[in-house]
Amino acid sequence: MEPEELPGAVGEARPAPEGAEERPSTHGTLLSVRDLRIAFAGAEAVRGVSFDVRPREVLALVGESGAGKSLTARALLGMTPPGATVSGEIRLAGSTDLAAARGRRISLVPQDALSALSPVHPVGDQLAAAVRSVHGVSRREARARAVAALERVGVPQAARRSRAYPHEYSGGMRQRAVIAMATLNEPDLVVADEPTTALDAGHREQVLRVLAEQRAAVGAALLLVTHDLDVVREHADRMLVLYAGRTSELGPAGEVLAHPRAPYTAGLLASLPQDGPRRRRLPALPGTPPAPGALPPGCAFAPRCPLATDHCHREEPQPRWTGARLVACHHSDRLTAPAGGNEEERPV
Q1: How far apart are CA 248 and CA 33, in angstroms?
Q2: Domain region containing 140
Q3: pTM of this prediction?
Q4: Residue 85 burial by Cβ neighbours in a 10 Å radius (0-12, 13-18, 19+)
Q5: Residue 290 backbone dihedrals phi, psi, to 5 degrees
Q6: Which of 226, 196, 194 is nearest to 209 (CA)?
Q7: Residue 177 counted as domain residue
Q8: Could you report the per-residue pLDDT of 36-58, keeping only the tens digit for each?
Q9: 3-state secondary structure (DSSP) of residue 189
Q10: How far apart are CA 96 and CA 209, in angstroms?
Q11: 161 in a domain, yes or no?
């Protein structure tokens, strides 16, 4: 079955959506997402998520499995699964025509490169087809561009390997090939959905480096879906933390990682291995995220949160801006704040 097409502006955008980035950015806005909601059989898996992506920036989308990261990313390309009901507004460079933008202005680096590539066509032919679909050049020119793209991502003997089939590539080489495909038409935005999940640590770093190089070379922004906070630390400008399909925290990656203001973010950070000679048992977040159709009353994170009070179990917190940070928590002031605070807090 083909994925459902998301035409962009679906339904009516609600006034003052949760998490809306109302303040104008001095760097402009490339992608604007407002009040994105994705439901299956009436159960919302993504619940009113709003964010911007600025030109050339890297925004990391973070959270546990089931947080709604991949669904949110796929909605940007009009590739939500069959049966999904999508509402909200998505604008890329001011346009809501996502179908026309896919492959041209926005592209995808998928989690599983083997399933993303056709098993019955050589890799080079698939890249050449992507070139011709956008530029309408001759087969010979498209072929030359495909080989050059494979060379740029470090595929050895690119002319010869372009005639090979995906199963003849290693996992790392396949991922390089899909990065080449995602960037060869010089998009404005690349969406990378857990691009290194199936790779070992060595290949992971190589692929991330290649992705960073190619994105920078074409001047694209990157939406990086990941559960790996070390990757966020090394590659992201800002990060958006999702929990149970809703914004938990948004802000500059360095600040969020150094001083989380949402207990959920703090819990994710506490579970990371720490440098040092002594090994310690890693703390883990108790419990599991709720299913979309079985959300608890109040804050969805309250049953797992060490700071939760009766108020948390009764009333869902609304995202509020504090300086450059957006946080949805009744008790964010109880977490460590950056030195020199005095930041103005205001509702969204």
Answers
A1: 16
A2: 106-186
A3: 0.87
A4: middle
A5: -75, 155
A6: 196
A7: yes
A8: 999 999 999 999 999 999 999 99
A9: strand
A10: 31
A11: yes
